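job 3f2a | input accepted
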Amino acid sequence: MICVGFDGASAASAPIDALRAFGPGAVILFGRNAGSAEQTRELVAALRGISELAPLIAVDQEGGRVERLHDGVAPLPSAMAFGATGDVDLVARAGSLLGRDLARLGITAGASAPETLVDEIIEAFAQRFAIKVAASGTQRESIVFNLPRELRVA
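job 3f2a | predicted structure (154 res):
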């Protein structure tokens, strides 16, 4: 599946014709695509109409510093902050809140990857291609939490 991003925060400024011709399986929204909640809903509706089989519409909305959309989505603390509480029920409620808010905007997928996976992908590309990647202000997170009661073995 090919996922693409683009510049523009409204349906009128999005490259809808180019996306329709290309036919990606997913479109990811970034901060540059964030407008009002109404603009985001209109943009997502236009994106979903680029093909008969609507593409996934993704956003990296993890909470804390990683919040691409602001209007129409409750601000949440980072995953590290949630992990520090040790409160699985709180995390579940926050996840439900975030999912509800994103669904109201028409978002159909989340997009984030553990940093170790990103590191492995970068290393694989570096071995195959002549590229250099410089890290800029990354911070490792270690998140530990208990399984929800429903998943625990008695």
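job 3f2a | The two ends are 40 Å apart (CA to CA).
job 3f2a | closed
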